[in-house]
Amino acid sequence: MRDTGRDGDDGHHNNDTGGYRGAALRALNDAGAAVGDSVVITYKDGTRRAGILMPRYEHDDGAHVVTKLSSGYNAGIDVDLIREIAVDRRGAVTDIGRGGSDGDDSGAGSDGTAAEPSGPARSRAAEKILLLSTGGTIASRIDYRTGAVTPVLSASDLRDSIPELADIAEIDSEVVMSEYSENIMPEHWLTLARRIDERAGDAGGDGGKSGTAAATAASAGGDRPYAGIIVAHGTDTMHYTSAFLSFALAGLTVPIVLVGAQRSSDRASSDAATNLIGAARFITSYSGGGGVYIAMHDGTGDDAIACHVGTRVRKNHTSKRDAFATIGGRPAFVVSADGGISPSSQDGAGRPRPGPEYSPKISLDRRVALVKYYPGYDPAHLGHIIDSGCRAVIFEGTGLGHVGRAMYGQVARAGERGVFMGMTSQCIDGRTAMTVYESGRDLMEMGVVPLEDMIPEVALVKAMWAASRAGDSEGIRRIMLENVASEMTAR
Amino acid sequence: MRDTGRDGDDGHHNNDTGGYRGAALRALNDAGAAVGDSVVITYKDGTRRAGILMPRYEHDDGAHVVTKLSSGYNAGIDVDLIREIAVDRRGAVTDIGRGGSDGDDSGAGSDGTAAEPSGPARSRAAEKILLLSTGGTIASRIDYRTGAVTPVLSASDLRDSIPELADIAEIDSEVVMSEYSENIMPEHWLTLARRIDERAGDAGGDGGKSGTAAATAASAGGDRPYAGIIVAHGTDTMHYTSAFLSFALAGLTVPIVLVGAQRSSDRASSDAATNLIGAARFITSYSGGGGVYIAMHDGTGDDAIACHVGTRVRKNHTSKRDAFATIGGRPAFVVSADGGISPSSQDGAGRPRPGPEYSPKISLDRRVALVKYYPGYDPAHLGHIIDSGCRAVIFEGTGLGHVGRAMYGQVARAGERGVFMGMTSQCIDGRTAMTVYESGRDLMEMGVVPLEDMIPEVALVKAMWAASRAGDSEGIRRIMLENVASEMTAR
Fold first, then answer.
1. Does A243 contact B at CB distance below 8 Å?
2. Chain Cα centroid distance, residue B432
3. Which chain B residue is nearest to residue A452, measuring alpha carbons?
4. Statement: the pTM of the whole predicted model exceeds 0.80
């Protein structure tokens, strides 16, 4: 059921010129400009615009030149309106001319087997960052004919689309998988966590603890450890993945920053570049050690990128650029347009707490269910979940953490069968409190454990992780109530 | 499992003095002050405080006098600190001295059978409002010994606790049920909707369409129709109930305003009074016809009560006074502290649209399930839901409206079996858009219907209502996509 429809290619596609063709290619050749160069474009009306010349893709027409403005936005300029293109500075990244896929048949497919350049982009930067791509809109392109978005960009395409990255750090890139995030499964979390552990697990110093031969090969030519890891990821379930990495890799000494985009990378309105740049700046500036973060727009403008603690964040809007929000507080850090990093002013929900010493625990047990209660919920559905062999149930209850009396029979049965039951709230924000009302007290008597202000999705992921590390309900309970990765905030 | 623990009663409880006893009762008797009076209390240090003398409950000690301040807050004042109590104005509501329950054994219990005074409070007001109580924190009291909250106040207790109400309208009161809202089931929605239809269904003019003999008896002595109806309701599931009333009673010509409290009515910090007063002011000032609203604090202060459209609102915090929020916009109306009603400035999500002509459709079919998708969701759970005879499934998908490929088998099976499938987003805010990504297109091919920006809980309630009115999936689809009660906003 994959959309394989593509516009007809007129054969003029040219890798060496970043995919430009037609009038746009002629204009660039006349100017001696190459993709990655800083250019100043003078319009016929005399106005000027400075930007970085971006690669063009074979779907696109030959009538526009695309530059990335200092805001991070891409702007497409009609060549008919251009009087002159002047090269201001040669691109720092010389292989950017390869931008876009290599042709109709060799783009990074959803099978994740695409050939991947392993060499790092040349850079004057002192620090190294590893960019892992998992797929998603950030690694996708829009089909302007149908308006549909399909995943085609590799991690190196992504890196090379954003020349500014090379000024911030030397970027190694690698495709781990190529999936939209609605198709990211718990098994993918394991794959990703293992890859990160291989590549950066020994960054803290005691080399060899987790590093492997593969890791050495991948960070080719680099004896410097990675200052941090950027994970390009679809936004739909990015906060589930960030939660798993937070638990499985707690204590990793370098930051892991998940980055997505609400608009695909080739669109003028894409937030991919600003989010990636913000993540890279955060990594090279951050002195707080490790931690897992999500970096996305802090507002609808491009002036600030929010870095949210990976266990306190949620996608709260289907389409806005600032869809991600720290629940119960401001983001932990904000990267401003000038590259400055400021810790958020508040002292509460959004701030990370110090983690444990690094000792990766990369495992999970899928026999966990999230049950959202609602008036009319059929208790037989919970019964089926219990009978299917579930080891833990996370309730998304109402208000302070309630389910209706009609559920009590199945709740009691789950307790008797040794199923761990944790309570969160469908209010999303705020803390559970199960001693205030009789419903809460009744449920606690049957074994339901209030999970403070843990976000329901985070509690689900943590329960999968806890269930793989504990033999029984009591063991799961102990892990669930331990604040492993800032998933609960202080009262 | 009900909490029946009560403080020992010393026998000095006195209904005629609003439950006051001990030193507090003596101070009030000395001043000739009765509950409901406006009083000015002079402290021994010379400062003064004006307020309305509130009833006291038998759980409370005899050392404090409680007054309601103009802010709506109750303040407990230690009698040892009081120099003088002066009566400024006699209470408008003379039966307020009955405040509190009538004793240990006769409070309104959770069985809803408590004796209920049927006479209206005496009032100088021109308009009549019907106050229906369903239970919840707003009709509850805190046990200061255990910190637990239990439901004991009847609708008339509630009315009488707030003397200001009598200045706004003549208030008839009635207990419909006494349940915390986590125990409110779809059948309760039917009971409540039928009661409202009986009491106010003919308010628009063509009398007798829905009115019954019982209704005439209940609005005793009143030939005036109700200007509106206030429903006191627990907050946990108030937005599910408001959604059902919105659909079942669409077109009712008088407003229905659901009101809850995040702190019980007898607590100093209770928001019950300000919310009820705001709802009453909204009803007597509103000239827009009918509609179902939820009235709760607009912020943490007492200066504004928000009136949210009943299909666009959600409880978004477990405990804050301003827990309720209009999704995607500002509330439709805000009632300010001086009683002024202002429509919200925005033109989008929060504004009600004109409803259809009143023709109550009070029915539902419980064979509907809300399925929140998450990574690792076991498709067998959906299979069980389908096999249980469900007629409609509302997905709470990720992002723009997705579920993972692993779900496709069961989704296709549901489609083939004629189960209606509607898609909403767990992002809560924002619009579904299923043509952008291949996952969405795949799901639509299997019969999943994107439900615009309908809130998941509202879509669930609407599907129960639609399923009772349609014979097949196509009939349900038609109703789901019709904007009945402002549940969808314009693109």
1. no
2. 28
3. B318
4. no
- Say whether B402 and A182 touch across the interface (CB within 8 A): yes
Q: Between residues 336 and 365 of chain B, which touch chain A (CB distance below 8 Å)?
A: none
Q: Which positions ≥6 away from A479 have C-beta within 8 Å?
A: A462, A465, A466, A469, A470
Residue B38 pairs in a beta bridge with B52, B89
What's the pLDDT tens digit per position in B4-45? 333 333 333 333 466 688 888 888 888 888 777 788 898 888
Going by their DSSP bridges, the two strands A148-151 and A291-297 should be labelled as unpaired
Q: Which residues of B touch A373 (CB under 8 A)?
A: 182
Chain length of chain B: 491
A322 Cβ contact list (under 8 Å, min separation 6):
A296, A297, A298, A299, A300, A306
pLDDT category of residue A5 using cuts at 50, 70 and 90: very low
- Strand pairing class (A140-143; A128-133): unpaired
pLDDT digit string (tens) for A253-298? 999 999 999 887 777 677 888 999 999 999 998 887 889 999 999 9
The reply to whether A389 touches chain B by the CB within 8 Å rule is no
Kindly state whether A180 is in contact with chain B, defined as any CB-CB distance less than 8 angstroms.
Answer: yes
Give the residue from chain A lying closest to B375, CA to CA: A185
Rounded to an integer, what distance in angstroms lies between the CA atom of residue B116 and that of residue B101? 11
Residues of B in contact with A181 (CB under 8 A): 398-399
Q: Looking at chain A, which residue has its C-alpha nearest residue B148?
A: A436
Q: Which residues of A are catalytic?
A: 137, 235-236, 315
Per residue in B114-139, pLDDT tens?
333 334 444 556 899 999 999 887 77
Which residues on A lie below 8 Å from B396 (Cβ)?
A: 372
Do the beta carbons of residue B415 and residue B387 sit within 8 Å? no
- Cα B256 to Cα B249: distance, rounded to the nearest angstrom: 10
- Quickly tell me which residue has 């109703």 as its tokens: B479
Instruction: Using CA coordinates, name the residue in chain B closest to A446.
Output: B1
Chain B residues in contact with A261 (beta carbon < 8 A) = none
B282, B128 in Cβ contact below 8 A?
no
Considering only residues B137 and B251, tell me which one the structure prediction assigns the higher pLDDT.
Answer: B251
d(Cα B311, Cα B250) in Å, to the nearest integer?
11
Chain B: give the shortest CA distance to residue A35, in Å.
29
- Cβ neighbours of B375 in A, within 8 Å: 184-186, 189, 237, 240-241
* Yes or no, beta carbons of B320 and A397 under 8 Å apart: no
Contact yes or no for A272/A261 (Cβ under 8 A): yes
Joined together, the tokens standing for residue B299 give: 């912020």
Q: Do residues B148 and A436 touch, judged by C-beta distance below 8 A?
A: yes
- Per-residue tokens: A167: 């000024």
Q: What is the mean pLDDT of the segment spanning B382-408?
A: 97
Strand ranges across the sheet with A128-133 = A170-175, A128-133, A228-232, A255-259, A291-297, A304-309, A333-336, A341-343
Of B315, B321, B319, B318, which is closest to residue B298 (Cα–Cα)? B321
